[in-house]
Specification:
Radius of gyration: 20 Å
Helix content: 55-70%
Shape: elongated
Number of strands: 3
Structural class: alpha+beta
Strand content: 5-15%
Largest sheet: 3 strands, antiparallel
Length: about 110
């Protein structure tokens, strides 16, 4: 099955792995230690992230290191960005409505 970036970021565990790797390169075991799920489950999440091109894995000795590839997240960022203005306008409108209700109470 061909996976895409949106499938990768749809899962909260994978989003957390991305957050961890955004801070530093980590071994698969170090990533696994951060979660209360099995190492096998973490390995599956890492495999999906690798298939989507979000991370790369390289071997140093006996350890496998995961490294984020930030450019791969650009399509998701661009898709989200197109809705940013819409949601800001909706939230501003809602805030104005709440302020209006508050002023009527006083």
């Amino acid at each position: 099955m061909r996976r895409d970036i949106f499938q990768a970021i749809a899962d909260p565990v994978r989003r957390e792995i991305i957050t961890l790797l955004a801070k530093e390169e980590m071994t698969v075991n170090a990533i696994s230690d951060k979660f209360d799920i099995s190492r096998q489950a973490i390995s599956k999440h890492i495999k999906i992230l690798e298939e989507c091109g979000i991370i790369s894995i390289h071997q140093k000795g006996r350890k496998r290191y995961c490294l984020i590839k930030p450019k791969s997240l650009i399509p998701a960022f661009m898709w989200i960005e197109q809705y940013k203005k819409l949601w800001e306008e909706k939230l501003d409108s809602f805030e104005n409505y709440l302020n209006e209700l508050q002023s009527k109470k006083q």
